[in-house]
Amino acid sequence: MPCKLLNLCEYETHKLVRIQSVRLGSLKWTFNGVILMFICIMMLWNKEYQEHDYVVSSVTAKVKGVALTSLPDVGDIVWDVVDYSGPSQGKNSFFVVTNVIVTKKQRQGKCPEVPPYGKVCRTDEDCVKGFWDQHSHGVQTGACVKFDVTRKTCEVSAWCPIESKKKPPKPALLASAENFTVLIKNNIRFPNFNFMRRNILPEMTESYLKRCQFNRHTDSSCPIFRLGDIVKEAKENFLEMAVEGGVIGIQIKWDCNLDGFLRNCLPKYSFRRLDEKESNRTLYPGLNFRFARYQTEKGVEERTLFKAFGIRFDVMVFGKAGKFSIIQLIIFIGSTLSYYTLTTVFIDWLIGTSCYSKEARQNYSEKKVESVQDRKQCILCVSFVDENHIRVVKKSHKKSLQQVKPISVHPCKDDTEHLSAMVGVLQKGNNIIDKPPQVLPRPNRPAWCLCGCCLPSTHPQEQLCCRQSIGRCITTSSLFEQLVLSRPLLEAVLLYREPLSDLTEGEQRIAALRNCSYRQYINWRIGAPPRESIPVMPSCSVWRIREEYPS
Questions:
Q1: Staple 404 to which of 91, 248, 393, 489, CB 3.0 to 4.6 Å?
Q2: Consecutive 10-residue runs of the chain (551 residues): their mean pLDDT?
């Protein structure tokens, strides 16, 4: 269609088919009601009418608690927050020491390397001076020295004596750390709404914070947590976890509603273990680090080495705030209108199933669907005397029309002109039960002919017989003579259409009678052809008409 300026002033709309049916109408409104209920529930449940913003937060943690441990060869040691907090663990994390391996009085010197990190040797030739690797405790001196009664290892320059214990003590030395407490301060902000809040709520007083402790059932808003309760909430055992250490996640979720009287913005706490303890049992288990305390004795620097095991707590903050927005509401309503097409799809499917009769389905399909054929494809319709329906086929340039498979099948529909012709026959008093005319079979009958009266043709679209099985030709029927070839009837039909037409003898009259005979046959055997299809007459009928009314 060429683009024209006037096309901008046109309006196009869809064509609707209205079916008068109480059953289908009730089904439609029932489905629409269910869809509307679903949309409303989803809108309220997910707050689709709100504009949302995500949280921006900061976290600080303050651990409190004191523990007393008695270490072999060291004595009693008091651990306060400076000792057991360890080095900084990064943003939003804190660490608590729960177990320790102590190696005391280490000095710079030479000593045998500890297996399996040290190479077992027999002579000095087995050791390489200056050699070290990532598992070594020092640099080899090139000497092979006695490690114990049965083994020798390469001597190294290191802090001696070298740490020899591998496994942490059980039970954990700082098991009492489960009674330590931590105050978590979380400040949040939703930039789009300029809304700020912290987990220490406005109604919390100083006296309340001094005595409160988090409990999921009795006090779920308190920001002070007992470490043992945190591990228990993560479904772990603190005494077992304290031996080798691990990682616990503290999750703070802010789900805020900032709409008027529904305003609600409170933190919810949850806890889980982050490291995979099952695989850690055999390969690099738990969490540990080393630190040392240095002193000088008789002018010589010494240190006490601590291999500390502990639990790292990672505080993770998630949050989303919502506030009513008319734009979001309109967008949600617009996006859900497409759900109503499910009703149409379901009812169309229901009509197309066996719940409805074949005639009802055919009638609905013809009213609803208007087929437009491609101009490059020619759709033909044919009728056989031994079938009570019409075949719709595609034109083929290779196969004979007799052999082409149909793309659809339709019932015959009577044409009003055909009925008027029948009335004309009865008015003239013609006897249609006369003895059928004798039509002799034609010589050189083609292979596709099953009635014996067709003539050969080189065009596939003309290779059509009046039958699908071997039998009597339609041209031998009495009705064929009366309805298709009868000159008085054809003249009456021509005058019926054009009352003032000139039917004088001549080639023009013969041509008019021949064309009228073609139409009579089509009206008789095909009736009103399916839309966008061209009716085709069988070869035997065409040649019989041409013999009666030659060109």
A1: 393
A2: 63 78 88 93 90 93 89 78 77 90 90 84 91 88 90 92 85 91 95 93 91 92 95 93 92 92 89 78 77 87 90 94 92 90 86 72 72 67 89 86 87 64 55 55 82 89 91 88 86 83 77 90 86 88 91 77
Q: Is 171 helix (H, G, I), strand (E, B) or coil?
A: coil
The DSSP secondary-structure symbol of 215 reads B
Torsion 350-356-360-362 (CA) sign: positive
* All domains of the chain in start order, with CATH: 20-49+326-368 (no CATH), 56-106+170-323 (2.60.490.10), 114-161 (no CATH), 379-425+440-548 (no CATH)
Q: Provide the b/e sequence for 507-540 (b: ≥16 CB within 10 Å).
A: eebeebbbebbbbbbbbbbbbbbbeebebbbbbb
Closest C-alpha to 72, from 28, 93, 102, 34: 102
How many C-beta atoms surround the C-beta of residue 164 within 10 A? 9
Map tokens 């097409």 to a residue.
341
> CA geometry: angle at 201 spanning 195 and 207, to 5°?
155
- Residue 200 is predicted with a pLDDT of 93
pLDDT of residue 377: 67
3-state secondary structure of 349: helix
- For the stretch 322-337, what's the b/e string if a residue is b when 16 or more beta carbons lie within 10 angstroms of its beta carbon? bbeeeebeeebeeebe
3-state SS, residue 94 = strand
Q: Beta strands 75-79 and 224-226: pairing type?
A: unpaired
In contact, 58 and 316? CB cutoff 8 Å = no
**Rounded CA Rg of the chain:** 50
Q: Tell me what pLDDT residue 439 has.
A: 60
- CB-based burial label for 149 (10 Å; 0-12, 13-18, 19+): exposed
**Burial environment of residue 467 by CB neighbours within 10 A (0 to 12, 13 to 18, 19 or more):** buried
Rounded CA-CA distance 487/549 in Å is 10
Q: In the structure encoding, which two tokens stand for residue 75, read together?
A: 């004595």
How many contiguous H segments (helices) and E segments (strands) does the chain have? 14, 18
Using CA atoms, how far apart are residues 182 and 263, in angstroms rounded to an integer? 29
What's the pTM?
Answer: 0.61
Helices marked H in 120-169 — which ranges?
none
- 116 Ramachandran zone, left/alpha/beta (phi>0; psi -120 to 50): alpha
Quote the pLDDT of residue 77. Answer: 83
Q: How many Cβ atoms from other residues are within 10 Å of residue 118's Cβ? A: 24
Cα–Cα dist 275/245, whole Å: 10
